[in-house]
Write a structure and sequence with these properties.
CATH class of the largest domain: Alpha Beta
Number of helices: 27
CATH architecture of the largest domain: 3-Layer(aba) Sandwich
Distance between the termini: 45 Å
Number of domains: 4
Largest sheet: 7 strands, parallel
Shape: globular
CATH superfamily of the largest domain: P-loop containing nucleotide triphosphate hydrolases
Structural class: alpha/beta
CATH topology of the largest domain: Rossmann fold
Number of strands: 17
Length: about 600
């Protein structure tokens, strides 16, 4: 049963509602506007990175409106985790899926029709089944339906990284109930995917919110050509604080890495499609409940893993594309705390990935996959800011030094390459924006081959004007122009270069182009906190949280997030009033856990030396 709201469901009381239900004092960027639009009954498309507070955008308006909110989720584990977390906050939520028996399903249906449930989680197949569509008519009549929230909405689009055909059929709901508002949400979507989502779901003038894809709490690094890859991996795992995920390309590598980590005394577990469902579920539960430090997995372990306190993600092998890498690396630090993302660049992985690409029967799919693999290599080999390379993939451009990646910490010097950029862009223009980077570089360097001669491009004024630079230097410049937004590239697998307004600004010398000059890379930053007493109290509270979680059979993060425990360790609340002021502590959590945590903080402080 949803807790009675002391303020009623007035939009002007959104901050008070946020604190009451979820314990937070203020909204993250974009959340308030999204919720206001939802309360007005408007369709919405929300692009918000992992850890940005996406779920709250539909959960809070669901609590402030009459009727049930339907939430479509593609994975059973994801819906179960979200429902458990909501119930922990005193919210009426449930799910209907294949894990339930007939009796339990009937009990949940009765609770829904009795008005005890505000959020109902379903898989798309369940929602579209004839039996549920019949039940939906009854639900509209007896309780009402506030809106439909479609999580992981990129699954709608065949241009997304995780296309699921059944998601496209959800347009049936819009045809049956044209007045029912739809909120589509996803963590990643390029402009092409966003357009496809709107079209497939027939969203009506939706409120579009695209958050920055920048995750400033994540530190990115690439380890190139490590002779002892496992040794490097082991060093990072041993020095890490908290849990982590290691992604491998094959099941065999998962098993080998897991066994070697276990031999070294690391609590590591495997996860891949070759294991039984029961074994995978058991390992996932042990990892989420902090009974194991490391999950070694293929990409079978991913979407729907709702563990916010992952402190590191390591890609032992190259990922297939940048969008997948962003998603997988983004499973670190979802709680907003600092985390590390490491990618090992081993050129032997390229042969394995190219083998997988050759298994695709469609030549178009092969071409796109080759293009995506090239983008991964460009990221791994980049000398400029890692963050800027990732963001440019999603059409977002970052200027300056992020200070949160290995390249930026190496303090590579910048050189003025404006003249070379003008030559490059001029060549693109004179070739009429019909070719990719390799061809443009060949023209610049005066390469004599049949293609160039047949097209007459050996007669262009830009032919051969770039002989003073190597092909690799021109390639670095071309990639940098793309990442800085001075040039565009088609996403169809052909990589055709296109000019834009900023290109012409460079050619008119209205913009300066600087290129990174590589210097030896320095070691990464130290992520360990400095305040020892805060860290000790934080660990003390983590142990208490784990004990309470084990008693209830829930993951520790569902009691309090790591960030909330750190705030407790810093502020050291001694009264219920002070405890309630901590961000992440709502009234329900105060009633449930306040006494234990306040007592624990008091006991810890009594044991401190007088000087502290």
């Amino acid at each position: 049963m949803t807790a009675a709201h002391p303020l009623g469901a007035h939009p002007q009381a959104l901050e008070q509602s946020l604190k009451y239900y979820f314990g937070y004092d203020s909204f993250r960027p974009g959340q308030r506007e999204i919720i206001e639009q939802a309360l007005q009954g408007r369709d919405a498309l929300i692009i918000m990175p992992t850890g940005g507070g996406k779920s709250l955008c539909f959960q809070l308006p669901a609590l402030l409106q009459p009727g049930v909110t339907l939430v479509v989720s593609p994975l059973i584990a994801l819906m179960q985790d979200q429902v458990t977390a909501l119930v922990e906050n005193g919210v009426g939520a449930t799910f209907l899926n294949s894990t339930l028996g007939a009796k339990e399903t009937q009990e949940r249906v009765a609770a829904i029709l009795a008005g005890k449930i505000k959020l109902l989680y379903l898989a798309p197949e369940r929602l579209l089944s004839a039996h549920f569509l019949e039940f939906l008519e009854t639900l509209f009549q007896k309780v009402g339906v506030a809106f439909l929230a479609l999580d992981e909405a990129h699954c709608v689009s065949e241009w997304g990284h995780d296309f699921r055909p059944e998601y496209r059929q959800l347009s049936q709901i819009r045809r049956r109930y044209p007045q029912l508002p739809i909120m589509a949400l996803t963590a990643t979507a390029t402009a092409r995917v966003r357009q496809d989502i709107v079209q497939q779901l027939n969203l009506k003038t939706p409120h579009l919110h695209v958050s920055s894809f920048n995750r400033p709490n994540l530190y990115y690094e690439v380890i190139t050509g490590a002779a002892d890859r496992f040794g490097q991996l082991l060093a990072r795992v041993k020095s890490a604080e908290g849990s982590g995920i290691i992604y491998c390309l094959s099941r065999k590598t998962v098993d080998q890495v897991t066994a070697r980590l276990q031999t070294e005394g690391i609590a590591a577990l495997p996860y891949h499609a070759g294991m039984t469902d029961k074994a995978r579920q058991e390992n996932q539960t042990r990892f989420i409940c902090d009974d194991a430090q490391v999950m070694v997995a293929t990409i079978a372990f991913g979407m729907g893993i709702n563990k916010p306190d992952v402190r590191f993600v390591i890609h032992y092998n190259l990922p297939r594309n940048l969008e997948s890498y962003y998603q997988e690396a983004g499973r670190a630090g979802r709680d907003g705390e600092k985390a590390r993302c490491t990618l090992f660049l081993n050129y032997g992985d390229i042969r394995n990935l190219e083998y997988f690409i050759k298994q695709k029967s469609n030549p178009e799919e092969q071409r796109v996959a080759h293009h995506q693999l090239q983008q991964v290599l460009e990221y791994a080999e980049a000398t400029e800011c890692r963050r800027s390379v990732q963001l440019s993939y999603f059409g977002e451009f970052l200027s300056g030094n992020c200070r949160r990646c290995d390249n930026c910490l190496a303090d590579h010097p910048l050189e003025d390459w404006t003249t070379e950029a003008m030559k490059f862009l001029s060549c693109v223009a004179r070739c009429r924006e019909r070719y990719g980077m390799t061809y443009i570089i060949e023209v610049l360097r005066g390469v004599s081959n049949p293609r160039i001669r047949e097209r007459g491009h050996d007669q262009l004024s830009t032919y051969g004007i770039g002989k003073d630079r190597t092909g690799e230097e021109w390639k670095q410049l071309g990639r940098s122009l793309l990442r800085q937004g001075f040039l565009e590239q088609s996403a169809d697998g052909y990589g055709i270069l296109k000019l834009n307004a900023k290109s012409w600004e460079v050619m008119r010398r209205e913009q300066t182009v600087r290129l990174v000059v590589t210097k030896p890379r320095q070691s990464g930053e130290d992520l360990k906190p400095k305040a020892r007493e805060i860290e000790e109290l934080y660990e003390y509270l983590r142990r208490l949280r784990k004990q309470l979680a084990d008693k209830q059979g829930i993951p520790p993060y569902m009691i309090f997030a790591d960030s909330t425990l750190r705030l407790m360790a810093r502020s050291r609340p001694k009264t219920p009033e002070a405890f309630l002021k901590v961000s992440g502590v709502g009234q329900h959590k105060l009633d449930q856990y306040g006494k234990e945590f306040i007592s624990a903080i008091g006991a810890y402080l009594e044991d401190l030396p007088m000087s502290q």
